[in-house]
Amino acid sequence: MNGTTTLKSLVAIAFPCLLLAGPVGAQARYPDKPVTIVVPFAAGGPSDALARAVAQQMTKSLGQQFIVENVGGAGGTIGLNKVVKAAPDGYTLGFGTNGTHVANVALYKKLPYDPQKDFVPIGLIGSAPLVLLARSSLPVSNLKEFVDYVRVNRAKMSYRSAGTGSISHAGCVMLLSALKADVIHAPYRGVGPAMNDLMGGQIDFMCDQTTTALPQIAGGKIKAVAALSAQRVPQLPGVATAAESGYAGIDLRSWNALFVPKGTPATIVTTLQDGLANALRNQDFATQMQKVGVEVASGKGAAPGAVTDLISHGIATEVPELKTRVEYLD
C-alpha cells in the first residue's frame, strides 16, 4: 500500500467520525431544552411573581426557555424535595427562601432535605421587607395601637400565613415573640388565599413581604400597620418601623435565591450563575422589582457565597428563637 492509498484510507475513516462529532458537540451545549424552576409555593404569591420575572430574564440571558412549575405544600418542603430528587443536570432549579432554608429547620422535625448540603446555590435574587398587614376594619393605625388591641382581644383573634414554614408564618412568629403576644395561627396553601381572606375581613392580620401587598394597600383593601424592617419601606414612607414604635431589633426581610441539586456539573452551575447575573443587571428587571419593593441583589451580595452565608447565619441565630416559639411538626 503506497502513501497516497494510506492517506485516502485515513480520510475515509476520519470523515464519518467528523460528521458524528458535530451533533455530539451540539448536544453538549447547555441549555439545549427548556429549564424548569420549581417554586415550592402556590401560584399568585410573591415567590411565584418574582420567580416568573426571573424566568423571563433568564430566558433572554441564556437563549432557552425557563418555565415556572408551582409545587406547593408543607411550607415549601414538597417542592424542594422534588428538586433534591431531580437529575443533577441543570434542567431542574429550585426557588428557595429563608422560609424554606432557615425557618423550616426549626418548624419541622424531619425535613426531607438538608438546606446546607443538598443544594448548590446559583445566586441571590434579592430581598423584600416584611410588613404587618391588617384587615381594613381593624381599629388600629400603628404598632402601639396594634399591641394594645391584641392584649385585649387576642383570644378571639387569628392570623394566617402562606403555610407553616413560609416566611409569612416565621415573620409573624418572630414579631409576636418580640411583642410577647400569642395569637392563633392557621396556615393556608399560599399567600393568595390568605390575602383574599384578609381583604374580606375573615382574618385579622398577617405578616408578608411587600411584593404582592402594595397594590392591596394602595387600593385600601388592607392596611399597613408597621414596617418590620430596619428602615422604612420606600413605597410606604408614611408607615413607621417597629423600632420607631418602640420595638428595637425587629428587622424581618424575605430573601430569595436559585438553587440546583448537589452533584450538578460545575460547568452548568457556572453557566447558570452567569445567566442569573446578567438577568439581575437588566435595568427593566430592576425597575420592575423596585416598584414592588424588592431590592435586587448585586455584586458580591448576589454571589453564591452570600446565599451560603445567609443560610448559615439564619440557622445559627433565627432557628433557636423559632424553636422556643413553636413545637416541631411531624
Plain-language structure description:
This protein is of the alpha/beta class. The protein folds into two domains: 35-127 and 254-325, 3-Layer(aba) Sandwich (D-Maltodextrin-Binding Protein, domain 2), CATH 3.40.190; 129-245, D-Maltodextrin-Binding Protein, domain 2. It contains eleven helices and ten strands. It has helices spanning 3-27, 46-62, 77-85, 98-107, 143-153, 167-179, 191-200, 210-218, 266-280, 283-291, 304-325; strands at residues 35-39, 66-70, 92-97, 119-135, 158-161, 184-187, 205-209, 222-227, 253-261, 295-296. The strands form two sheets. Strands 1, 2, 3, 4, 7, 8, 9 and 10 form an eight-stranded mixed beta sheet that branches. It has a two-stranded parallel ribbon with strand order 5-6. The termini are far apart.
Question: Topology of this protein?
Answer:
Blueprint: H1 3-27, E1 35-39, H2 46-62, E2 66-70, H3 77-85, E3 92-97, H4 98-107, E4 119-135, H5 143-153, E5 158-161, H6 167-179, E6 184-187, H7 191-200, E7 205-209, H8 210-218, E8 222-227, E9 253-261, H9 266-280, H10 283-291, E10 295-296, H11 304-325
Parallel strand pairs: 1-2, 1-3, 5-6
Antiparallel strand pairs: 3-9, 4-7, 4-8, 4-9, 4-10
Helix pairs in contact: 2-9, 4-6, 4-11
